[in-house]
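Posting for a labmate who doesn't have an account.
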Amino acid sequence: MEYVVYILESQSNSRLYIGYTNNLERRLEEHNSNQTKSTRNKGPWKLLFAKKGLGKTEAQSLERKLKKWKNRKRVLAWIEREEAK
């Protein structure tokens, strides 16, 4: 099964949310319909970036790495580098 690490941006407060899933479409719908506790009432959410084709362990590791940064500018710079590849 393939996994995706995704980065969302709140359209109401510009905060970023980082997560991983094996069904990005379903997960985005859950975030935007307030079914996810950590993003409830903070949307609507827009998909900024998705890194596809990862194994579960790889996706979990990347998600943890990005979340540890706790720095919007650093995450956005990482996205730019990834998109340039």
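Reply:
Got it, the structure tokens are right above this. The helical segments are 24-32, 56-69, 72-84.
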